[in-house]
Amino acid sequence: MTPADGGQPAVILKAATQLFAALGYDGTSTRQIADAAGLNIATVNYHVGGKRELYLTVMERAHRAEKAALDQALARLPGDDPVASIHRLVDDYLDFCVDNPEIPALWMHRWLSDASDITELERQYVQPLVSAVTGALRPAVEAGVIDASVDLEYAMWTVIWSVHGFAKGGVLDADGRRRGAGDRAALRRFRAHLHLTLHRTLALPGDPR
Fold first, then answer.
1. What span, in angstroms and rounded, lies between the C-alpha atoms of 29 and 16?
2. Which CATH superfamily is domain 1-49 in?
3. 133 and 168 Cβ atoms separated by less than 8 Å
4. 59-201 has which fold?
5. Where are the domains positioned within the chain?
6. In which element (H, E) is residue 171 found?
7. Rounded Cα gap, residues 167 and 96, in angstroms
8. pLDDT at position 77, please?
9. How far apart are the first and last CA of the chain?
10. Percent of the chain with pLDDT strictly greater than 90
11. Band of the pLDDT at 4, cuts 50, 70, 90?
12. Which of 12, 72, 138, 199 to pair with 149, CA 20 to 30 A apart?
C-alpha cells in the first residue's frame, strides 16, 4: 500500500508533512511522526520506510502538486493582454502557496540548510520549474513587453522569496502583531505590493495600479 491508497500510509504522510513543514527534517524524529499519526514506529517503518524515505515521499508529492498548479497556470499565460497574463501568473502562484502553506514551509527549511545531506531535490524539482517559467516568459522579452535587460531568473527568484516568506511568516503590523496569509487585509496588501514590484522589476508597460 502506498500513501495515495489511504489508510495508515496516508495518515503517516499527513503527519510527516505537517511536522517537516513546522520543524524541518532535522528537527523531526520518526517517534514524533509515529506519535502524531497515532501509530508505533514499527508500523511507520513497515508502511513508508525510515525518516529519509518518508521525507523524499513528502517532497515528491509537494513537487507534483506545485508542478500541476504551475503547468495549469502556464497554459493560461499566452493571451491577448501579455501584461495581464504575467500578473495573473503571479496571482496563481501566490494563491497556490496561500492554499498550500506547507509547501513553501518545506522549501524554506531547506533554504536554511535543513536536510543538507539530501542534495538532489533542488536540481530535480526546483530548477526545472524555474526554467519552465523563465522559458514561458521569453516570448514577452522578444516582443518587447519585458525589458531585455531584466534578469528573468533572478526576477522569478525574487517572487519566490517574497511569496514563500509571506506565506510562511507573514508581516508585522504597526502594533507588532504578525499578519499572515489568513488575514484578508494583509493578503490584499501583499498582493498589490507584489504586483507593483514585479511590474517595475520587469519594466512592464502601463500603470500596474
1. 9
2. Homeodomain-like (1.10.10.60)
3. no
4. Tetracycline Repressor; domain 2 (1.10.357)
5. 1-49, 59-201
6. strand 171-172
7. 10
8. 85
9. 51
10. 90
11. very low
12. 72
